[in-house]
Design a protein that fits this description.
By secondary structure, the protein is α+β, with helices and mostly antiparallel strands. It folds into two domains: about 150 residues, Fructose-1,6-Bisphosphatase, subunit A, domain 1 (Fructose-1,6-Bisphosphatase, Chain A, domain 1), CATH 3.30.540.10; about 110 residues, D-Maltodextrin-Binding Protein, domain 2, CATH 3.40.190.80. It has nine helices and 14 strands. Helix 1 runs antiparallel to helix 2 and helix 7 packs parallel to helix 8. It is globular, with a radius of gyration of 18 Å. The two termini are about 30 Å apart.
């Protein structure tokens, strides 16, 4: 493959397959997620990398149901779930080598879910050799979803069959930009360098849920999402949702996003001007090579 060859913009799933995918996610939410919301026993919640990195029975059971259903629908695809990677980390490395991979985040925003906050979602990303080509960001509480693929614009769908396109914001001057940043997940030295620069923006916060952060970006409610923790189940779907809603998604050093990348900072923004303003504003404060 040479760089001069164009990448064909074709959907990895037909319209019927996308409908089947959405229905599978909705069934898993009804069967395994929502019955456990605000109904978890103490033994249903455990930790992974630390006290704030939680996993629940809903995560495990929803991922199992989704993985089974997706493997039946796409028998030749590599199916990779967040909890499966926790048990076998080498699975993450297989994504970038797969012609078709489907990545599952069964309950994104598990901390919110475990604490009874109705701000969580299900994320499904489809990648070709690590490049996102389809993303689904599903809200089990509202029973609606953002979906995008590389052949069609990002749109918001709901259970009654309504669907409408979404569009990112128009961006603006640096002092007018608001967005989400995973500040608390960054290294201490990065936080110390970055903190003084946050005052130059209108508002910077985090929802502890990438699903809803990217949904807000794709619908124009915020201007950017920035993260230095590059778990593909958190970001691959959001990248294509941003791009197909008219936004820009790149690593802060200018690289195109790919699930193979594990170091650096991903910046998704409303447009090129806003992306560049943010890149220049944060250059040198994150140790990412963007200076």
């Amino acid at each position: 493959m040479t760089d001069s060859l164009p990448i064909p913009l074709t959907s990895p799933m037909t319209s019927a397959q996308q409908t089947a995918l959405i229905n599978l996610v909705r069934r898993a939410a009804r069967a395994e997620i929502m019955p456990r919301f605000r109904n978890l026993a103490q033994g249903d919640i455990t930790t992974k990398s630390g006290p704030h990195d939680l996993v629940t029975e809903a995560d495990h059971q929803a991922e199992a149901m989704l993985a089974r259903g997706l493997q039946r629908m796409f028998p030749h695809a590599l199916i990779v779930g967040e909890e499966a990677v926790t048990a076998k980390p080498s699975l993450r490395e297989d994504i970038s080598g797969a012609e078709l991979a489907i990545i599952i985040d069964p309950v994104d925003g598990t901390w919110n879910f475990a604490h009874g906050l109705p701000l969580f979602g299900v994320i499904i990303a489809v990648t070709r050799f690590g490049r996102p080509v389809l993303g689904l960001l599903y809200d089990p509480v509202a029973d609606d979803w953002i979906i995008a693929d590389e052949a069609t614009p990002t749109r918001l769908g709901a259970a009654l069959g309504s669907e409408r396109p979404t569009k990112v914001s128009s961006g603006g001057a640096l002092s007018d930009l608001q967005g989400y940043m995973h500040f608390s997940l960054m290294a201490q030295e990065q936080q110390e360098l970055l903190a003084p620069r946050l005052a130059g923006l209108a508002r910077v916060t985090a929802l502890r849920c990438s699903c809803h952060e990217y949904r807000m970006l794709a619908q124009g409610a915020v201007d950017f999402v920035m993260s230095g923790m590059l778990n593909p189940w958190d970001h691959a779907a959001g990248v294509i949702a941003c791009q197909q809603a008219g936004g820009i998604a790149m690593m802060l050093d200018g690289r195109a996003y790919n699930t193979e990348i594990s170091d650096g900072v991903l910046l998704c923004a409303a447009n090129q001007d806003s992306w560049t303003r943010l890149r220049d504003h944060f250059a040198g404060s994150l140790g990412d090579g963007s200076e």
